[in-house]
User: What shape does this take?
Amino acid sequence: MNHITRKATRHISQNEGLIFEKSSPGKAAWKLPPLDVPEVDTAKLLGKQERKDLGNMPEVSEIEIIRHFTRLSTWNYAIDLGMYPLGSCTMKYNPRVNEFVARVEGLANGHPYQAEKISQGALRIMKTLSDCLLEITGMDAITLQPAAGAHGELTGLLLVRAYHQSKGNARKKILIPDSAHGTNPATAATVGYAVENLKSNDRGMVDVAALAAQMNEDVAALMVTNPNTLGVFEQEIDKIAELMHAKGGLLYMDGANMNALVGKARPGDFGVDLMHLNLHKTFSTPHGGGGPGSGPVAVKKMLAPFLPTPVVITKPDGTLGFEYNRPQSVGRVRAFYGNFGMFIRALAYIFANGPDGLRQTTEDAVLNANYIRKGLEGVYDLPYATPSMHEVVFSDKVQSKKGVKTMDLAKRLIDYGFHPYTTAFPLIVHGALMIEPTESEPKEELDLFIEAMKSIAEEVEEDPQFVLDAPHNTRISRLDETAAARKPVLRWKPENA
Amino acid sequence: MLQAIGIRSVDELFSPIPAQYRLTRDLAIPRQMAESEIVDWFKQRAKENGEGYASFLGAGAYFHYRPVVIDALVQRGEFLTSYTPYQAESAQGTLQAIFEFQTMVSELTGMDLANASMYDGSTGAAEAVMMAVRITGRHTAVIARNLHPEYREVLNTYATHQAIPLQTVSFTDAGQINLRELEKAVNDDTACVLIQSPNFFGTLEDVEAIAEIAHKHGALLIVSIAEAVSLGIIEPPRTADIVAMEAQSFGVPLGFGGPYCGVLATKEKFVRQMPGRLAGQAFDKNGKRGFVLTLATREQHIRREKATSNICTNQALVALMVNIFMTVYGKIGLRELAKQNLAKTAYAVDQFNKHAKVLFAGAPRFNEFVVQTSEDPYAINSRLLGHKMVGGLPMKKFYPELGNAALWCCTELTTRSMIDTAVGLVAESERSVRSMKEVEEVAL
Assistant: This one.
């Protein structure tokens, strides 16, 4: 060890095989109540469709299951263990009260098709959350149906298409800045639009002159992330909106970075026509190792008729219900009403904060990012000097002279007890280190992080190979991903099979 | 911290936002609440939400028992509060769990491979159709009318903008897809046939016969499975090319419709056209086994507009619930569980048949069935509500041709006394309609 880390230390870590390797006939973790109706002859009922064997499904006991998953869990890094500075992912604390209220019986066991009369609680949650999100974004109407951010983008672009179609021409392409997340172009393609790249200027913002040149009647919309993936607020956002609107185009905002704006500025006020939110980023619903998310789409009035069916409405008698009769709707994007469990959690978060708390949250998120920026300035290259909002993007320019790249630095950061920042994104920064601390981090954790990053920079100077070989303290060292992709093994099979 | 940064107030940090767009007032949202108030508010909402009602609803969302170890384990912060496992060394727990999930889903569906999850069964089915279009290079799809109506709606939304014309094939008196009509619908431009089995009426399809028709014309067969528990006792669709499953039945709360857990499974040769994340085995320099996300060149963060799908976030934590459920029940328990579902349903069908008409008698079914009554099922259901019971799903909205019909579901949690009470109320309704008719006839 070159440097001493204050946050992490080596610790006993249990080995654990695959569950299939522990299975043996006769072990069981389940018990069914005695059957209160007559037994059935399955062969008679099902004929040739009866399944006789479930193949290699495991047979294990309950303590083995508990140990298995508990041991596996200890091999994960998590927000609960420390700062998780993934840029644009907004890894903030996931309050436990959210989990508690999502499991209250009447909500957890509510069936999506139960009569509206006995669904007023769920409808009220959807309505209240919708109202809050509309106020936060400054928009007019909303759908909660999309299951994730990319699904929200898809819904948004369907709305864009339906809107233009209603005017007689769906238009051909979507403009996307070169700093955008990969889901933006992938979504445009899914909706049948061509993608046209928009270059950023030397301040890391949309090049307004380039936009003016590229904008024409073929362009359906511009998808802009604001603050963008450099953590920079698009200062000319109103000019961008004007340029789009002048030629009948729409301004779509990817709300991935909304954590920099809540309570401080509203996209609806600065010309955005539609946007999606990520409840799993800004509104504290847990990432859960990759999902579930929730990606509501909020729109201005002229787009409201096109929202997916159904929408929540207040009936003349004051009760809530679903409205299905929407002739101009783009249709459904998901069965039922969306990831309702995430609505509960997001609303609980909004309640826990209130107007003052949400503003404070945003201020703390921006403050924390700028504190890190200051702490690491001069140690790592800052490709854009433009002020940072909730995240800061450095590059590996200095360290790569010694052959150490952003991914190597990230792997070494694991040894210091942190999750890596986002590496190699946005694409407009060569060797990017994208750092988003969120408001959740106390100064002490930020200081440990800055100290770790400085220490790694020193290690690069003293012994670059040591950093290139990182991580050193994990259960496994770097895995050969190339070999894994060449001959993919995507499931377990018994050895003698 | 302000001092360290070299500013006087936090407001300076927001100066990049043009002044006219900076919010100078409080957001008009409810005031900050204490934890006790939050809990109380949601408990009140739960009371207005059918708390304590016994239910016969299925139709793509099933009420099965959830072993308590599921929530005990998924609430471990290391699972709950971690991100997508892009950094493999910091996420071996999630990655190995996904690998086991992929294995068990493959075993159960009879496919070679499965992905790490999709949003849900409806979007999974739509993604499967787009996958079939990519594989075959063909541009139309044939869809069973007894596929979940909301799945069809979602598919319609996706297909419209992918320029994939959809043709719908109706069902027979046995509730199964009409094979003769199917035969006519499939041609050399058909990318895939998409069916559901057990289908929306709870009836099993003759998957082999359908596969034969599809394959004869070079089309792929996609089988959507909405009730995963059926896989414990029903032969999986081994002749299918893609299985698009909704795994909610495996330990995921009903939760008013989500989050659920879609998953795609397929043949090995199609894996590079499959959307969604995949975990694969890998080794480190010391030869130690581990797992990584692999075949990422299919995905949007690498391929951008050329990706197989725009999907990014999936349903990882829900997939973990499914994973734990499959592990708890395992090879034997899953079969016993499915058998109980089958027995409860068979009993209920017998009882309902005594007083009303259970449709689609000609084919085997799993745990759902359609009951036709003389009276409007909405009226019957509102009487059931008085007994704190939620009756079957009225089908008029989706299948007007079935008239006064409702889709009922029984699981291992449906008790005999629940069934008897519901059947009693339906019988009463039939009797009163009959006596009304008699009165009318006498009056004539």
Summary: Chain A touches chain B through 190 residues (CB under 8 Å).
